[in-house]
Design brief:
Order of helices and strands: HHHH
Helix content: 55-70%
Low-confidence stretches: 86-94
Oligomer: single chain
Shape: elongated
Distance between the termini: 38 Å
Number of helices: 4
Mean pLDDT: 87
Number of strands: 0
């Protein structure tokens, strides 16, 4: 059950989110580019948080473990499969 069919359709038609959602729904895959971007942003967020704010050690350790586990999950998802030769493709002409 979707909370909003309209929002679901809007996301799937989106230039940015549509292909990512299609890959995820098809086979649970995440593109290599998205994996790199996500894990880099997680790492930068931790680094910025730890350097700019006074955070207790236990909170830093907890955050690092949680972010590490999320990054591990992202990295271990399969990458999308390349199209098979001879598969039908819709050509875009402009």
């Amino acid at each position: 059950m979707r909370s909003s069919e309209r929002f679901h359709a809007m996301l799937h038609k989106s230039r940015w989110f549509g292909p990512l959602l299609a890959n995820w729904e098809k086979d649970g895959s995440i593109s290599l580019r998205s994996k790199i971007l996500a894990t880099t942003m997680i790492g930068l967020s931790l680094l910025i948080s730890f350097t700019l704010f006074r955070i207790p050690l236990f909170a830093m350790i907890s955050a690092a473990i949680a972010c590490g586990l999320v990054s591990l999950y992202i990295i271990t998802r399969p990458s999308p499969q390349k199209s098979q030769p001879g598969a039908s493709h819709e050509s875009v002409q402009g």
